[in-house]
Amino acid sequence: MSKTDALSVEVVKHDDGVVVSLVGSASMDLCERLNAALLDVCQTKPRVLVIDLARLDFICSLGLGCIVVAYLRVTKHGGKLMLANPQPTINDMLTTTKLGGLMPVCSSIEEALARR
Questions:
Q1: How far is CA 59 from CA 14, 15, 72, 94, 100, in A?
Q2: N or C: which end of the chain has fewer CB within 10 A?
């Protein structure tokens, strides 16, 4: 698989929260994997959920929707969802869709965990 047709979702628990790193491309046919991983994490009711976008090359509207649903689930129980390290194209998409105004966008995982 090339980096443009695969999606890897890595989950790492920290003392301060959970970091979900997205690697590759979140195209329509791969978003079910993203949604399932985010649902599993949200069920643990983390105080802080950081979605690391540093190695995400592409995300479709369905993938953005998965992140919004995770945001709603996390904030429902008083947690926070932060986005970290978006690539320029992903950052442009967050700005265009105004999701960057809904969810804080941080320049690093450490910054996101510290902003809890």
A1: 25, 28, 19, 10, 14
A2: N
